[in-house]
Design brief:
The protein has three helices and no strands. The chain is an all-alpha fold. The two termini are about 25 Å apart. The relative contact order is 0.11.
């Protein structure tokens, strides 16, 4: 019973909720690479790990455990700003990070 999926399942059974945060670029070795190796910005093209994890969680709950799961998937790319970060942004990000792990 090791791994992230059983851990998330146990967490939801015990606490009725779980928060999963996935860093952009994580788990690239788990995903099939595309022919496109560069994004328009010149940065490497990263595969969507968060969508992969989301789909794996849903499959684990519904198929392997026979449980329904309600999931809210938030993609922060919707809130990317087009101005330089300031001190308020730094404090806000710090607060988000602390809340994500506590």
């Amino acid at each position: 019973p090791n791994g992230i999926l059983p851990h998330i399942f146990r967490r939801v059974q015990e606490k009725q909720h779980a928060v999963v945060v996935v860093a952009e670029g994580a788990g690239q070795d788990l995903l099939e690479q595309t022919q496109e190796t560069e994004a328009g910005s010149g940065n490497p093209k990263l595969m969507p790990i968060a969508e992969y994890i989301r789909d794996q969680i849903i499959h684990y709950f519904q198929v392997e455990q026979g449980q329904q799961v309600r999931m809210k998937y938030l993609d922060p790319s919707y809130s990317v700003r087009s101005v330089p970060a300031n001190a308020t942004d730094s404090l806000y990000c710090t607060q988000l990070a602390h809340n994500a792990v506590h």
